[in-house]
Amino acid sequence: MYRIRFHGRGGQGMKTASRILGSAFFQQGYEVQDAPRYGAERRGAPVFAYVRAARRTIQERGIILEPDLVIVADDSLVPMPAAGVLQGVTPRTVLLISSGETPETWRHRLNIAGPLLTLQAEAAAGAEQHFVGTALAGAAARLVGVITLLALEQAVQLELAGLGGETLSSNLDQALAAYELMAPQAGLVSEGEALAAAAYQRPDWVELPLDEADAAAAAIHAGATSVEVRTGLWRTLRPVIDYQRCNRCWWVCSEFCPDSAIRVNAEHFPEIDYDHCKGCLICVAQCPAHAISAIPESSEAQP
Amino acid sequence: MTRTLITGNAAAAWGARLAGAEYVPAFPITPQTEIIETLAGWIDAGEMECRLVTLESEHSMITAAGAAASTGVRVFSATSSQGLLYGMEMVYAVPGYRAPFVLVNVSRGVQTPVTLEPDHNDVLAARDSGFLQLHCATCQEVLDSTLIAYRLAEDHRVRLPALVNLDGFYLSFTREPVEIPDRAAVEGFLPPYDPETTRFHAGEPVSQGVVVLGGAYYSYFRYEQHLAAQRALEVYDEVAAEFAQQFGRSYDAVETYRSEDAEIVFFMIGSFSTKAKDAVDRLREAGQAVGLVRPRLLRPYPAEALRRALDGKKGVAVIDQNLSMGMGGVLHGELAGALYGRAGMPSVLASFIGGLGGRDIAAEEFYEMAAVTRRACREGSTPPPRLLYTADELRQMRKLQAVAHAERMEGKQ
After folding, report:
1. A11 within 8 A of A236, measured Cβ to Cβ
2. How many Å apart are CA A195 and CA B362, to the nearest integer?
């Protein structure tokens, strides 16, 4: 069975990537299971998705413990323990990181001996800036080596049918280009085995002790802990205030901000708290003076 | 036979669509919302003739479902976890209307603390309500069970609402190959709803939810619901047989997997049972006679079929993805009740609590549960209930508690 994990940020298209790869396997006659995994997160938060593919009915469920292939859409997730990118990676796991740096750099940084590839995945023209899912699905399809170009093409068309004409065709180009790029590595990923029951490591089960109710109640005892969660990292688009146009109405943007991330200073100018602004852009839509615009987070023109 | 990759939520929506549901009272909740979104999309596009109404709560939603069913239309609704609990007053009330409809529950652990991931405490809270309960293990089963549930609920010998349960995430958001039958084939199995006498309309007033004092009348009405639910066992077998004949997929009230010659069996409900099947295959490869017994139908409780499936087994590893505080696993207690005092029944029922709040059950944990049960059979003593929880998980918990403790002390200074 192939076990493949995609890691990225909400909005990068990891769910879509897993579905494209899942559909491509399915076109190829495989049994497939694909699923995204996320909680209450949103755009920009770490998310992952997984694909299982096998020649027989798939009974396994849930998170993949020992992946054959791990694909990372945003290299800033690799060192983040909570993202779990390296969880269960073995010497035979293939790692594909979308990054401008070389495989050698990453191998050295992670002290990993197994196969590691990098690819500077680009979002398709017309697609949202950070949507790199299709390219990575195309790369994955070639790395497993059992998916034809035709099956990949059909899968992209099926999964992105709702996007229509130009967006679909430019995404298709991205997927096919990545598929071609990975040609030298075709078949690098191999199917993993199931854990045998003859010799397994016994689970380290423990008896839960009865603790004091104070310690055993799910409560947070410090105030304003949400401030410590830098949700600004989730942002893919950044609202920027043009103070020449701001008419200091002093309330519209700050009132509408669902995260209370806009404060008004003593001079009645609003200031955005970029540590916590998630980039929902409600302020951009609400500002009566049209003084707030949105720029991509990665843009060179960032102030 | 064409198969399509769809999620469990989409499979539930397809079930409602193919059943020709005419009225859908709705209220969103993760991880169910995709079901009503899918239905709303189809209705909006003119692909499904149905009225979908968003209510202001699940309490109103279940009320609307019961009331609409009393008018003789085919009703579908869906909820999850806190939503089901919020509607619980009416979940217990509407079965007494004796007006059938289908409610899908996408299992999600209940608070406190809050989670989004699944266990079965939500749906088991509706256990004694009068709703029939069908529990699914695959996306295909979700679609098929929805169709079967309508036939069962609407049968004149039953006429009770039915709950179809699927696990959040593991089925709700997971795509698997599903054969979507065509409408004509479904109509052969599930013709348009004939409400017979359930046709409330303005010209013929009916009062539902009436008061009866002096326990004897009350006892009658309540016991009639119980008898109807019990009758549903026999009706289920007929309906499932007909479904198998028409669609080629068998859904016995109790699924057995490699259990015929097994000494030890896993006993559980829900999507993790496919993981148990995998474990059974691996254990068989290692030369162990292990199988799986899974009740699909939990209400009515298929006690006789379970006794047949477990006759002659040495031990059962009961895996409860739920927890009744102060008692333990609900399935374990119910199974013991069904087997107690009967000849030929396994003497060891080992109780395991696992998968709470979506916690994974790893392959080696299935192997170890089989080993523990086998050892208990050899020694002739039932082991104490076991929570599937590792030393590493407890270490993580202790770290979190250390942070909480420090914060609490800071707050007191």
Report:
1. yes
2. 10
Q: What tens digit of pLDDT does each residue of B18-48 get?
A: 999 999 999 999 999 999 999 999 999 999 9
What pLDDT band is residue A25 in, cutting at 50, 70 and 90?
very high
CATH number, domain B255-392, options 3.20.20.70, 3.10.129.10, 3.40.50.920, 1.10.10.10? 3.40.50.920
Among A35, A208, A215, whose Cβ lies nearest the Cβ of B175? A35
Question: Which H or E run includes A290?
Answer: none
Kindly identify which residue of chain A lies nearest to residue B277, measuring between CA atoms.
Answer: A59
CATH topology of domain A231-296: Alpha-Beta Plaits (3.30.70)
The CATH number of domain B3-247 is 3.30.1300.10: no
Contact by Cβ (8 Å): B380, B347:
yes
Name the minimum distance, in Å, from the CA of B75 to any CA of chain A.
29
3 state SS of B75:
strand
**Closest-CA residue in chain A for B273?**
A59
**A2-185 has CATH 3.40.920.10 classification:** yes
Do B174 and A61 lie within an 8 Å CB cutoff? Answer: yes
What are the chain B neighbours of A65 within 8 Å (beta carbons)?
362
The residue ranges of every structural domain in chain A are 2-185, 231-296
Nearest CA in chain B to A155: B5
Contact A197 B282 (CB under 8 A): yes
| H-run or E-run covering B293 | strand B290-295
List pLDDT tens digits, range B156-193. Answer: 999 999 999 999 999 999 999 999 999 999 999 999 99
Strand pairing partners for A6? Answer: A49, A71
Confidence of residue B409 (pLDDT cuts 50, 70, 90): confident
Interchain CB contact of B394 with A (< 8 Å): yes
Which residues are registered as beta bridge partners of B176? B6
Question: Does the interface predicted TM-score (ipTM) exceed 0.90?
Answer: yes
pTM: 0.93
Please determine whether the domains at B3-247 and B255-392 fall in the same fold group of CATH: yes
